[in-house]
Amino acid sequence: MTPTHSPGRVAIPSLPTVLDAFNIAPADEARSLLLRCLHSLRWAERVAAHRPYPTVDALLAASDEAAYDLTPGDLSEALAGETLPALPDGAYSAAHMAMDAAHAAYEARFGHAFVICLDGLAPSEALDHALEGIRSRLTNDPEEERVVAAEELRRLARERLFHFHRGAGNCAPSPSGAAPGA
Fold first, then answer.
1. Short-list 56, 121, 131, CA closest to 94
2. What are the Cα distances from residue 170, in Å, to 99, 151, 162, 167, 175?
3. Which DSSP string corresponds to 115-141?
4. Cα Rg, the chain, nearest whole Å
5. Helix (H) or strand (E) run with residue 66 in it
6. Mind listing the pLDDT tens digit for each residue in 52-62?
7. Residue 44 region, left (φ>0) first, then alpha (ψ -120 to 50), else beta?
């Protein structure tokens, strides 16, 4: 006799994703993770409060929306938590001096760290892009630069969240000091 077999499918549960874990994490853990992506408590609370997100794209859209609504105080808080983009490994000391000098001029003019999203650039192009960015943005008036800095922070937060949800583990800086996207 052949064994009887009931027709049907066998349900195989899917493994939880990073997004699933983020969606069900306690609010304080979600805020803590988000604060490593953008140092604005209001932004982090807003993004965390709208969980669960059905997709990473929905999370990124919520991040963008919350970043567009940063007040001047929120922007100052976020900028205070940023550091200068890390130079690629093997950069010459002259490159470090040029970056330090340009950044000192930027901080003296605007009162906060220079922020720029370098995501998508080859490491060999990052230094030139960052130096060009600092030099060109030094010509901005303070209000114009706040708008540019806010947009760069939005892009950084988006890239850091994206890298986190691709499995990078967190939004914190890498061992070389560079946060994803910075």
1. 131
2. 27, 22, 10, 8, 12
3. ----TTS-HHHHHHHHHHHHHHHTTS-
4. 21
5. helix 56-68
6. 999 999 999 99
7. alpha
Do 85 and 126 touch, CB atoms closer than 8 A? yes
Structure tokens at 49: 């409060």
Instruction: Identify the pLDDT of residue 168.
Output: 52
Q: Is the pTM of this model over 0.90?
A: no
Domains with residue ranges and CATH for the chain = 18-168 (1.10.3330.10)
Please give the Cα distance from 27 to 60 (Å, whole number).
Answer: 18
Give 44: exposed, middle or buried? Use CB within 10 Å, 0-12, 13-18, 19+: buried
Residue 167: left if φ>0, alpha if ψ -120 to 50, beta else—which one? left
Q: Which tokens is 91 given? A: 């950069």
Q: Cβ(57)–Cβ(143) under 8 Å?
A: no
Cα–Cα distance, 100 to 82 (Å, whole number): 15
